Amino acid sequence: MSWLLAVPIAIPFATAVFAFLLRNGAAGRWVSVAGSAALLAASAVLMQAVLAEGVVAGQMGSWPAPFGITLVADLLSAVMVVITAIIALAVSVYALADIGPAEERLGYHALFQVLIAGVTGAFLTGDLFNLYVWFEVMLISSFGLLVLGGRAEQIDGGVKYVALNLVSTILFLTGIGLLYGMTGTLNMADLSIAVDGADQGLLTVVAMLFMIAFGVKAAVFPLFFWLPAAYHTPAFSVSAVFAGLLTKVGVYALIRMFTLVFDHDTGLTHTILLWVACLTMVTGVLGAAAQGDMRRILSFHIVSQIGYMVLGLALLTPLAIVGAVFYLVHHIIVKANLFLIAGVADRLTGGTALSRIGGLYASAPLLAALFLVPAFSLAGFPPLSGFWAKFLLVKAALEIEGWVIAAVALAVGLLTIYSMTKIWAQAFWEPHPEGREPRLSDLPAGQRWAMLAPIMALAALTVFIGLFPEPFVAFAERAAAQLLDPTDYVETVLGDRG
Amino acid sequence: METLLALTIGALVAAAVYLMLAQNVLRFIFGLVLISNAANLTIFLAGRLTEGAPPLIAEGADMPAGLVANALPQALVLTAIVIGFGLFAFAIVLVFRAWTSLGTLDADQMRLAEPEEPRA
Amino acid sequence: MNSVILKAGTRYLAGLLLVFSVYMLLRGHNEPGGGFIGGLIGATGFVLYAVAVGTADARAALRVEPQSIAMVGLGIALLAGLLAALFGQPFFTGQWLFLGATETDKGLPLSTVLVFDVGVYLVVFGAILTLVFAMEEEI
Fold first, then answer.
1. Given a cut of 80, is residue B73 above it in pLDDT?
2. A394: distance to nearest CA of chain B, Å?
3. pTM (2 decimals)?
């Protein structure tokens, strides 16, 4: 049983080793693709097991919980691992065309796979300190990826990213220390029992530390400013995987901790989260409206969309959690895809600054059509995945008569359309200012398909979720039920001791 | 001993916050180094202090004899120090690169990735 | 740096540090020590060499790129965890072989824990040298 959980972490590490040793030739990039495909298979097997048997847990090194490191997968973890694998596969195929030999020699593929290992580990671990370690694995490889190539712009964005993320890391570590001092355990399942005996006031203080630490990672208001400073600087495939996965690990950690451990004073903590969520949505979308660069607009939209997920957690009704889980999955696919499309647009038109590009609709209608799918999905148009995600959250807000919250969520959706229209009008509709006619056929066939195939696959997934939402919503309902009633989680981890 | 350590942590955090409020990025990193040590000490303190008893188990025994120090916080702190070492080594190299390629370490003037909007 | 004393001293010290690092690695099981500290000490040997004669010579003496050493170490550490699969036990469960064990003597203990430590040694060794060489060449 425990191998089901260990293999999705071991595969990217093994891939990283081989990809690094083969980095000087073409073999390294194919190792990366093969490793991502293997990860997808392993995560599918894990998902199968979790669907069939409920929560799956394994004690690493045969040290029993709560003393050793536990890996555990409930439905939320399992679906996050699957989606990580999908994004890893899409981006590693895209990287075949996007990443040049110079960056490959510096170890791009190895760093990428280590990043994926960190993300997978963070989703699967059942131990708080281990979560910290996975955060660091992610952080170190993301530092490397962010400044790989070393353009001055990247260094500038990198400094801000590194500085703010290190602060978050240290707050997280302090929180771990205090929580350990209060409860004597770091196993998350054990913690969920042990916190009941702790000083509730102190516990709330510690909960705040965790909220800030994960809030920086998730880029919520007012801690988001490192994200739009850095995400538009690295290679497009790096941007895409950062945009899709990294902030979502922060959201996942928030959801995990604030449903499993810190559910003692929801009147305070979740009210703060509610304010944070609304302000995040609004500032993100207003920030995006002010930008004139495709990638920077998309970066600000990550922030505004994070607000929706936190909103789901803050409302803490069953339907709201369903919405948050659904949103998480939908948004990873859509956001990564938008950045991949921006990469193709950059390749064709020579930039992402909206005032300097254009003419994509006339000369590359296929790309225009592919852009519309995630763009409309992000804004919440039916029948795409984003519509159902927003629908669930707005309905959850209305159910508890949070009229203002629902209004904010809808208004932010409208403003999202505004910036998507801006990209559409200036990059696709208007002619290119220099009169260029960027065609997809200008790209060499191999590169063209390496870039378009992942975009098409992710777009198809968005449409599929949009057209057949029932199984996905049903799945999210089961995942939410597990989150709100962690008995199964706790019992599986601790065995008959609990 | 606990009080002394708590005061030390407080002093470290105060100094770190002072450094981190400076505009110079290098000072910021130094502040981070200090505050990360404060975090490590917090973990160490959270594991309760036991003086002069290393958590080593004698040959042939299954348990340590008598009261020994809590080994877990030591392992956690060691891990955190190692990770912190790697991160800070990277951060300092990065700041150095920033100095050579941007020509400034003033946080307000590092605007290459986010150029100021021309005022209308 | 151009110092005759340092250059002459390094010749012996670097070798001594490398031998001592292996000793530290092996003694780590029942006494304080282990792969991490061993890797640090081993790296110190090459750092000293790089300070004395320059990074170019130190790289040449190392023969392999330090990044590759670190990645191979990662692979070895991972392998140590995976070996538990052969015995049907969870990831990273230690497997022990007591070579030449008798009733009274437990023989020479060999374990996957040691393999893991060797991996850690190489990761630390490679990572430290990667960083130090990069800094030396940068400044």
1. yes
2. 34
3. 0.92
